[in-house]
């Protein structure tokens, strides 16, 4: 009474196009940048040297280093507490681009993550 298990589905392996590889690489880089930016914003210290603060021989407390301190200070100056939403928006745009990568043009979706909703 042994029965043989067979699968009726055919598995089709498809090659990744260069556009899709580029999209995935850009999404990974954008996600890593958003994580770095969130770490820089969360570890912001007003005494770090930045464009609005001069500190001489002070250690940098920001997890993003000197570029993180400068960027966090600039974003807080321009956007205030809403700067915390920028990494969330970047991650949301990456997720949106990943979910809709087959239905939209990849060259349009990279710089404008919500451009596919406007047709």
Automatic annotation (TrEMBL):
<keyword id="KW-0812">Transmembrane</keyword>
<feature type="transmembrane region" description="Helical">
    <location>
        <begin position="22"/>
        <end position="44"/>
    </location>
</feature>
<keyword id="KW-0472">Membrane</keyword>
<keyword id="KW-0131">Cell cycle</keyword>
<keyword id="KW-0132">Cell division</keyword>
<keyword id="KW-1003">Cell membrane</keyword>
<feature type="domain" description="DNA translocase FtsK 4TM region">
    <location>
        <begin position="20"/>
        <end position="105"/>
    </location>
</feature>
<protein>
    <submittedName>
        <fullName>Cell division protein</fullName>
    </submittedName>
</protein>
<dbReference type="InterPro" id="IPR025199">
    <property type="entry name" value="FtsK_4TM"/>
</dbReference>
<feature type="transmembrane region" description="Helical">
    <location>
        <begin position="75"/>
        <end position="98"/>
    </location>
</feature>
<keyword id="KW-1133">Transmembrane helix</keyword>
<dbReference type="InterPro" id="IPR050206">
    <property type="entry name" value="FtsK/SpoIIIE/SftA"/>
</dbReference>
<dbReference type="Pfam" id="PF13491">
    <property type="entry name" value="FtsK_4TM"/>
</dbReference>
<dbReference type="GO" id="GO:0051301">
    <property type="term" value="P:cell division"/>
</dbReference>
<dbReference type="GO" id="GO:0005886">
    <property type="term" value="C:plasma membrane"/>
</dbReference>
């Amino acid at each position: 009474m042994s029965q043989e298990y067979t699968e009726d589905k055919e598995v089709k392996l498809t090659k990744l196009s260069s556009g899709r590889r580029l999209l995935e690489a850009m999404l990974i880089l954008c996600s890593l940048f958003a994580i770095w930016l969130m770490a820089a914003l969360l570890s912001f210290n007003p005494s770090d040297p930045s464009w609005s603060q001069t500190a001489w021989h002070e250690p940098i407390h920001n997890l993003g280093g000197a570029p993180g301190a400068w960027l966090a200070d600039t974003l807080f100056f321009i956007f205030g507490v809403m700067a915390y939403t920028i990494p969330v928006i970047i991650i949301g745009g990456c997720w949106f681009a990943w979910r809709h990568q087959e239905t939209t043009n990849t060259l349009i979706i990279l710089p404008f993550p919500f451009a596919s909703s406007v047709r």
